[in-house]
Structure formats: C-alpha cells, structure tokens
Amino acid sequence: MRYYPVMVNLQKKRCLVVGGGLVAERKIRGLLDADADVYVVAPSCTDQIDTWSQQGEIAWERRFFEPSDTEKAVLIIAATNQPDVNLAVYQACQPQQWINIVDRPDLCTFTVPAVVERGDMQIAISTGGNNPGLAKKLRTQIEKWVGPEYGDYTRFLGEMRQRVLRLHLAESQKRAILAKLLDERFLDWTRSGELERRDREAESLLQGQESGE
Ligand SMILES: C[C@@]1(CC(=O)O)c2cc3[nH]c(cc4nc(cc5[nH]c(cc(n2)[C@H]1CCC(=O)O)[C@@](C)(CC(=O)O)[C@@H]5CCC(=O)O)C(CC(=O)O)=C4CCC(=O)O)c(CCC(=O)O)c3CC(=O)O
Ligand SMILES: NC(=O)C1=CN([C@@H]2O[C@H](COP(=O)(O)OP(=O)(O)OC[C@H]3O[C@@H](n4cnc5c(N)ncnc54)[C@H](O)[C@@H]3O)[C@@H](O)[C@H]2O)C=CC1
C-alpha cells in the first residue's frame, strides 16, 4: 500500500480532535491554518488550546470522549495518550469518515505530513509512517533551501499566470511566456527585494508578446 498525496480543502468543515496535549495542539494548528471548523473533546488541554478556545477559534468540550462525538465530523483525529480511548474513537467512526489515530498508523485513513509552508506554496513530506522524525529533519533542511521569499514569489507567479491565461494568444505562445516567467531572475529579484524591477520585466514580457499578436 502507498499513500495517495492530496491537498484537501477543509474550509468550514467540521473536524473533531480528541485529546488536548502537544500532539493534539500541533494537529489543531494545521486545521486552523486550513480554516476548518475545529471541535475538541478533552478533560484537560495545553495553554495554547485553551487560548484558542477562549478566543472562539475552536470549540473545546472539557470532558472525556463519547462515541457520539464523532457524528457529523468529516475528519477525526484521535490524539489522547490513552491507547484504548484512541481505539474507541476509531471504533465510533464510520468508514466514510477521514480518520487519524496518532498512535496507530495501521488504522489511519490519512496521516499528517511535515510541511514547509511559504504562503500558498506548501511542500509536504511523508515517510509513509516509517520515521516521522526524518520527515521533520527533511523539513528543516528544505526550509533553508526554500526561503520565505517563496511566499511572495508564488503569489507573483500566480497573478502573472492569470494574466497570461487571459491574453488573446495561441496556447503555445502562452506556454512560452509562462516558461519565461519561471526564469531564475524573477526569483532572484524577489529575493533581493527588487520588486519594481521584477514587475517591470514581467510587464514587458507580457506586453512584448501582446504587441506581437
Ligand atoms: C503515522 C503518523 C500519524 C500522524 O500523526 O499523522 C505518525 C505517527 C507517530 N509519530 C510518533 C512519534 C513522533 N512524531 C513526531 C513528529 C511528527 N509526526 C508527524 C506525523 C506522523 N506521525 C504520521 C506519519 C508521518 C510520516 O509518514 O512521516 C509529523 C510529520 C506531522 C505532524 O504531526 O504534524 C510531525 C513532525 C512535524 C514537523 O515538525 O514538521 C516526532 C518528533 C517530534 O515530535 O519532535 C515523534 C517522536 C520521535 C519518533 O518517535 O520518531 C509515533 C510514536 C508515538 C509514541 O512514542 O507512542 C507515532 C506512532 C507510530 O509510529 O506508531
Ligand atoms: N502522531 C504523532 O505525531 C505523535 C504521536 N504521539 C502519541 O500521541 C499521544 C499523545 O501525546 P501528547 O499530546 O504528548 O500527550 P499528552 O499526555 O500531553 O496529552 C494527552 C491528552 O489526552 C487527553 N485525554 C486523556 N484521556 C482522554 C479521554 N478519555 N477523552 C479525551 N481526551 C483524553 C488528556 O486530557 C490530554 O489532553 C502519545 O501518547 C503518543 O502515543 C506522540 C508523539 C507524536
């Protein structure tokens, strides 16, 4: 078996996290970044989870898990330190629900990768459950190579691409402009903060092709 990598839109989707320790906190942070509707059930939790609850960013029920908690959730994460409770969460789920049991990779319908996050650009790393520590190590190495400028760079390339796709040109010409936009110099200008130069050069690339219609 090999995992199928996907990026999931969880905006406003009801997601249940059972447990409120550091592992739960890490998973909740990811769900909040994805704008999910997060629901936590745990008798105690970390300060960060408590803060999220007080700020209304999540709904925290301060109690032990009950099987009916899994109803209506599209995605469920069992992250308690009690193997029998995590198993009970699994048993309460329906086959069509997406489930992650943090101490039972064999029962997971999905696992959580380590992620390099640069705005809309995300690099997800999975070791297929072999060694999460390796996924984390590789993440920190890639973070050094793919710097914070990739956030702005990705947004810039996204905007330019939309404009190119709207041009009244042959597909082959659009592809040629898109290929030129990926030229290293646009990344270099983003990195060095020469944004006016970058935008000007990109503009002339588009204009040049347009005037050649
Ligand atoms: C299967 C999976 C299920 C899932 O959680 O989705 C899973 C399972 C388990 N993790 C365990 C331990 C640790 N996990 C981490 C860290 C991370 N674990 C993550 C994902 C995954 N962990 C999924 C597979 C991902 C893959 O395929 O590589 C990351 C990548 C993503 C995230 O959690 O956000 C995040 C790094 C985020 C980052 O920093 O980038 C650390 C290191 C640390 O915490 O510093 C340790 C301690 C060191 C060690 O044990 O290796 C244990 C033993 C528990 C016990 O001792 O009882 C199990 C259970 C088992 O393997 O049986
Ligand atoms: N997949 C992963 O990434 C990792 C998984 N683990 C596993 O995750 C487990 C949890 O780790 P931590 O967060 O560090 O533990 P922790 O001890 O800090 O937190 C456990 C949480 O579970 C809650 N809990 C206990 N019984 C409960 C119940 N009946 N209903 C609801 N909540 C209940 C507690 O209130 C607490 O908030 C570990 O025991 C380990 O097996 C550990 C490291 C990484």
From TrEMBL:
Q: Which residues form the Siroheme synthase central domain?
A: 118-144
Q: Which domain of life is it from?
A: Bacteria
User: GO terms for biological process?
Assistant: siroheme biosynthetic process
Q: Provide the catalytic activity annotation.
A: precorrin-2 + NAD(+) = sirohydrochlorin + NADH + 2 H(+)
One short Pfam family name for this protein? NAD_binding_7
Molecular functions (GO terms): ferrochelatase activity; precorrin-2 dehydrogenase activity
Pathway participation: Porphyrin-containing compound metabolism; siroheme biosynthesis; sirohydrochlorin from precorrin-2: step 1/1
Reported EC number(s) for this entry are 1.3.1.76
The answer to whether UniProt assigns keyword Thylakoid to this entry is: no
Instruction: Alphabetically list the UniProt keywords.
Output: NAD, Oxidoreductase, Porphyrin biosynthesis
Recorded hits in PANTHER family, A to Z, give: SIROHEME BIOSYNTHESIS PROTEIN MET8
Instruction: Note the NCBIfam families from the entry.
Output: cysG_Nterm
This protein's name: precorrin-2 dehydrogenase
Organism, as annotated: Brevibacillus centrosporus
